[in-house]
Amino acid sequence: MSEAGRAALQRGMAAAEKLSAGEPPQAVTEAIDRYHRLMGIPFDHIVPDPALLPEESVRFFIVDGEWLEALTEGVLSVGGTGSRASALAARHTELYRSRMRTAAASGPVAGMLLRSTLVAQWPTTQILAFADPVPPRDAKPAGLDPIEPLRFEALAPTLLLVLWPQVPSAVWIEEPHRELGHGFHVDPQTGGLVVPPAPNTSGANVPVQMRAPQTVDIVRLAADVARQPGRGGRAGSGPLAAALLSRPYRQVFE
Amino acid sequence: MTELEPGRIDFYDGVAPGLRDDTYRVRVTTTVEHSATADHAGAQPLEVFTEDRWVKVAGAKYRLDPGEVLSVYPPPDSAGAYTTTLGHVVLRRRTLPWEKAVAPSTSTPWLALLLLDVNEATINRNVAAPDGTRHTTVSMSADVARAALPLRAEVPLLCHARQVAPGGPDTARDDDGWVAVVMTGRLPVAGRAYNMCLVSLADHGAVLDRGSVPATVTLPVLHDWTFKSGSSGTFQKVAAGVAQNAAAFGLSAGHPASLDHTRRDGTPGVALYRGPIVGVADEPAVAAEGETDVSLSTARTLGRLLAAADRSLVRELSEWRRRDLMSGLGPPAFAAGSTSGDVAAETVARLSGATADPWGVPDRVRRLHARRDGALTPAEAPGADGGTPDGAIPQDAGTAAEGRS
User: Region annotation Disordered: residue ranges (chain B) (predicted)?
Assistant: First the structure.
């Protein structure tokens, strides 16, 4: 190698040492944020074996920062060859790594995968995650302060992915409020339809009488329901509807 | 009207409209009197004017503006476990069910929601209505009508009004939080398809009383939809089933998945892999003999592939890299204070650096290669004697090669 060539090479190396990582373009940051929210990651890279997520199951997870750092490194190394480009890519990766650590609250930290017909049949199912202190199980929906999810998306008709910015202490799966119908409960002993007692009362189930096959005897039902404690004692369409309104079912995971 | 606290729903038996649909007379009587005293005592009527105006209050009888229906249950075209639920329709105008009465009563609401098996009844669309417009009707046999229609005493119990707190269910498209709800009294059977028809009973009091039911009963349909009653279980059942199978994700750095893997030398091996999600944060497993942990290299490759597939991202990345490289290389060669001689020296150094032979090919080899090069040139371009300097290249290959290097 000629003297001049060697000198030029050394200058280049020295310059690469001195390289500083400038402010990243917004498009790059957005793309990396997207990948950190697992968007565009092939599903078999997330769940390598279908047995890890059987039908009708829910799996809670935490996000592996090391894996995402490696992914980021790959993203930033694209299109560059040579020592200077790779030195720069390493600096860019370091920049994102420190950014991920400092702004930890902005990236996903935990999440859940729900594989169930719930996702397909009740598309507006509510999933609420709570940090400590966890509200009581029968808390009213108003005034709850759930963790805002970073991502809430049905990846497939029966597969839901939720990502949270912190590890929740409790997760509630709640029946969609809009889907509330007027209905009856099934008595586990007799298998017959019943109207449950009013909340916070000591009443008994009221069996539903039919006046014809599949046809409810509404007049009798209204009178029976009115006699349940806590229902006001008056047979009318308003009290009847209030008694039949099914309360949203809430499945709690802690 | 007061707003309710969030999450609260108030139920009412009904909301009476200002005027029920009917014909009303408005009578205006004007009396003109004359009085001679200051305290108007003993005034004498001079004249009495009476004017009558007949006003007809009539709402839609054969059809409903689609905007009047806020929501229906079960959801249209859905399939689900509805065997323990009574379907309903939510109407925007809270007085709607009570705006007409089914004669001879003056209080029976005129709306009913019928649950009809798709084989039980026929829905006729675009039929001439008695008022000359087109509407939809449903026809069923007398037996089906007896089974599907509510009794007169049941009709008022199946209609109610609700005031829902802002943000509560069914109020998303409603303006005042008040809605009217009409329920059906029949329960669906699993595995069947059903039509739900909101019908007008206004002219069908006889059927309601089950007095004289004609062989075919045809009712005007204000709104209808279909659904299937499946047997997949209620939300409660499905959610409880899911709860039986709830766990932390089965992979972690300490417990990666073992996948079949072909190593670089072609021998079979085991690849240890975990994805971006793990059940617990733990220390990576130590790879045993024949095992390779490919998690992070897979992530790196995937990142590279994802980025490479995104054209605009590649552009942004290389722009960023170019900018940073420039700022790193930038001014040192031509910094302030350098003389023109420095610039010239630097330029020469850079140029020679860029064009220097970094591999140090021996001169003899280079000359040999250049000679072969030179020998080929005239053969490839025979007779190219005008443009090249007098075809001297073959004879003077050594010089030419030195000139090139």
Answer: 368-405
